[in-house]
Structures are given as structure tokens and as C-alpha cells.
């Protein structure tokens, strides 16, 4: 990447030669016709790569989105997770022809994704995030439409790989929807329309939050290899998860990028491990506080925390030149003028489920021969989150170009059950923890 390149992305530039899809990605009208055209009566064969809770949920949403969808292949690193997914789907669709996954179409291991993708027209990529760049690249090379969960990578080399594959997907006319579901949620969509109409002026500052008690921990089992242990507890290892600022807080950071219409030029912040610091918590932090500065001068304060019995808050608020904005995933949105009067308050009582909406719009776009392209927003908001992690780990000011050009490769392509994972514990079972002021940007 040219370090002199201006990272500011205006709405005018972002929308040039295209119109916004309802999800905030791009509906590309000037690109080639989609790689495969499907009539209303054609079956769309779907493969699921990553059969955990999110992959299973996405498979169900795909089946609900289009009566012509059929699940034809499942892939996961672990057979038990694949079997749980299949049982869950079978309980709902087992007496229909919507679930058509014979034993020979159930694939396990690190190369399982290839076999499943080869059998499908559309792929759901919901494995652990560290593998997303490789899975996405292969799916695009095989001319498949894609739904992929966020984040789309855990390191900058992965981001660059995703962006390159996304350009190829655009060239081929392939649909790519990224699971930043707030972009498919009505209260956020209505807010972005009002912001584009300058109802409250220009955003100058804001605060975005994902503060909660944390997530699951899976106990180490006897005779379990280090690779299996980390794969089972993927959330606590950066090469797989990216830390919770990347895996979860990306949602709120993405809203800030979307509403402001730019990506940050720099980030600085602090973080550490105060509560969640045992051997069973790998090497990620339990809190991050990051200040993102944008090209137009806006400054966003970003908080994420995983500490039980503390204040929980997952939402976004912004201050603008003529008012303020509040949004959350609970279908709320309120815009207020500088004088305190309410400009807009969203009634979300009848809003559709945004997780379902993502799939509804994906399959409708495929049927119409149109193209949704979420790759760039997914990759750049993921990089923004990684940039925040770099700032808290090092204690330094990290520029956008620092982050984009980082050579730190967390995930290689030669991961296998026979190899050790990239991060290993010491003789006491402790993992190396980033130390601000000592940890360096690579």
C-alpha cells in the first residue's frame, strides 16, 4: 500500500458508479452479470463451513430466506460440532428435501472447507475468524457467492488477502455479504438516511461500547493436544479470534465508520488483563479503550470490556454540529437537536430480524442477477478493530498505514493437527501476554 495514499473515503467516492445496497454494502450495477444466473425455480446449493452456533444459525437463516435453498455440505474442524449442526437442522428440516447432506458430504479437518465449497453455489463462511481469508479466497476462486461472518481476518496480511479476493469477486459478479448485521437493521438504516440529509449536521465525536461479562470457557481435557485445546477455546487466542475488540466490538466500530463516512487515520489507547487473566483465558486482554481520530476531525472513544459484575452496555452515541444520535442493536434510534427536541425516534416493534435480513437480501440479489459487495466495508472495519488492538497492545499511536502495512502474520496456511499452534504456553502453562511499552508493532 502506498503510504502517501489518502485514507479518507467520502460518501461521494464510496458510492461512485454504484448505489448503496440496503445493507450499506454496494449494489454494483456496472459489473459483469453474476457468475451464475438462477431462475426462480433453480435450486441454490449451500455449503456451511464452520458448524458452530453462528454457522448453524446462518444455515437456518439461508433456508428461511429462499424456498429454493438446499444445504448440501457441512464442514468443520471437529466432527462433534458438525454432528450438532446437522442434528439441529435435521430437527427442523429432516422431513423435507431442504437438508441433503449425505455422509460423504460431511467433511472434517483443516482442509474440509475445500470439499464443501466445491459442492455448492453459495457458501456460508462461519469458521473461526483466523481462517476466513483462506476460506474466502478459495470460495471466490471457485466462483461461489458468499456469506461470511465478521471479522474477516485477525491480522493485516489477512485483510490484504481479503481485499484482493473481494476485488476478484467484484470482477466476477459474485455476491458477498458480511455479517455486520447492523447494516441490515432498520433503525441504523433510517439513521444513516437522516445523517446523509444532514438532519443533525456533521458528526464531531462519539462513544461506542461493547461492555459485557464475557463469553464461554472450555476446560482443557485429558490427552488433548495444544492445537485442539486452542481450537476449542479459539476466543482466547489472537491467531484465531483477534481479541474481543476485533471479534465483537467490530460491530460498534463499524457503525462509527459508516455514520461518519470515513475510516480513522490514527488510533491510540490502553488495555490489559485485570479480571480475566488465568491460564484458561489464553493471551487476550479483558478490556480495551481506544481513541480513533478521523480525517475530518471527528474523534470516537471506543470501549470494550469482558469483566463479570460490571456495567453492561452495547450501543453507540454520537455528537454532531446540530444535535446528537443514539443507536443500539435493540432496534432503538433517537436523533435529537442541539436544543433538546426529538428529530426522530425509531419504532422498531415490527422490524425484521437483521440476521435474517442479511440472508433475505443475499439470496434475492442472487436470484435477480444483481451483486451485493460488502467485502471492502467488512475488511476495512476489521482492520480498524485490529488497529485498535495494535494501539492497546503497544501503547503507541498507530496510523492507518501502520496497520494496513503490518507484516505480523498470525495465521499461516500450513496449520494442521500435526503442528503446534503459533502461540505456545511456557513450562507453567502460561501464554505470552502483550505488554504496552514493550510489545512492538511488526
Protein architecture, described:
31% of the residues lie in helices and 21% in strands. With 442 residues, the chain is an alpha/beta fold. It has 2 domains: 11-182 and 355-374, Rossmann fold (3-Layer(aba) Sandwich), CATH 3.40.50; 186-351 and 383-404, Dihydrodipicolinate Reductase, domain 2 (2-Layer Sandwich), CATH 3.30.360.10. The strands form 3 sheets. A 9-stranded mixed β-sheet has the order 16-15-14-13-9-12-11-10-18. Strands 5-4-3-6-7-8 form a 6-stranded parallel β-sheet, sandwiched between helices. Helix 5 packs parallel to helix 6 and helix 10 crosses helix 12. The model is unreliable at 1-23 and 29-34 (pLDDT under 50).
Q: Which helices and strands appear, and what pairs or packs with what?
A:
Elements: H1 11-14, E1 19-20, E2 26-27, E3 44-49, H2 53-65, E4 69-76, H3 79-93, E5 106-108, H4 112-118, E6 122-125, H5 132-141, E7 145-148, H6 156-172, E8 176-178, H7 186-196, E9 203-212, H8 226-232, H9 244-247, H10 250-260, E10 266-272, E11 287-293, E12 299-306, E13 313-320, E14 323-328, E15 332-337, E16 342-345, H11 354-368, E17 372-373, H12 375-394, E18 398-399, H13 400-404
Helix pairs in contact: 2-3, 2-11, 5-6, 6-12, 10-12
